[in-house]
Amino acid sequence: METTQKQGKILSGIVVKAAMKDTVTVLVERYVMHPKYKKYLRRGKKYLVHDPGNSAKVGDKVTIHEARPISKRKHFVIVSRPDDRS
Domain coordinates of the chain in residue numbers? Predict the structure, then answer.
């Protein structure tokens, strides 16, 4: 019996708050079509994201990955930042 590990969600967004220790708030926006008017609307959701070392600043575009629960509302970890160009 072979166990397979599930791949978590990978999202990208912009850091909107970095005032907490080891935590940033990331705004992830998506486009949704209105069912009646067929116009595309922007919908956003804020996620609390674990940021070890407090390296992300407000305005940074980051990629986040789903992880095990770190606290009550924190279930994502930062994967890459703009300065990780390697």
Answer: 10-80
pTM: 0.84
- DSSP per-residue string spanning the chain: ----PPP--EEEEEEEEEEETTEEEEEEEEEEE-TTT--EEEEEEEEEEE-TTS---TT-EEEEEE-S--SSSEEEEEEE-TT---
The domain covering 10-80 belongs, at the CATH homologous superfamily level, to Nucleic acid-binding proteins (2.40.50.140)
Cβ neighbours of residue 59 closer than 8 Å, sequence gap 6 or more: 14, 15
Q: How far apart are the first and last CA of the chain?
A: 38
80 pLDDT above the threshold of 90: no
